[in-house]
Design goal:
Elements (H helix, E strand, L loop, with lengths): L37 E2 L4 E4 L2 H12 L3 H4 L9 H13 L7 E2 L9
């Protein structure tokens, strides 16, 4: 057994290519039965939809992936990130992943 605190590199996840990155907002199952938008004048909380949010998410965390995903299975690419979200988060009916864009930013 490898001690995750020892800094040993883990092999990349061997996940099937996820089709969720192509799923549209209306067809994506977010595991929630009620309208799901909470917002203020500065932010809007809504479900993380890979086809809408994944590229922006990866643009902000991709260069820091080793630091951010230190205690997670090895995630090195956008596709592996989407597969991880799909297989370990969205497919569990008790989980939901949120996106929290800032309304004040032009790229949000």
């Amino acid at each position: 057994m490898v001690d995750p605190g020892a800094g040993a590199e883990l092999p990349p996840l061997q996940l099937a290519k996820s089709e969720t990155s192509l799923t549209t907002l209306s067809a994506y199952d977010v595991n929630f039965a009620y309208p799901l938008t909470l917002q203020s004048d500065r932010i809007k909380l809504g479900p993380f939809i890979p086809s809408v949010h994944a590229e922006t998410y990866w643009r902000h965390v991709g260069d820091r992936r080793t630091e951010i995903f230190h205690y997670y299975p090895a995630i090195f690419t956008l596709e592996e990130t989407i597969s991880f979200f799909e297989l370990f988060l969205r497919r569990n009916p008790h989980n939901i992943l949120f996106a929290v864009p800032e309304k004040m930013r032009p790229d949000a």
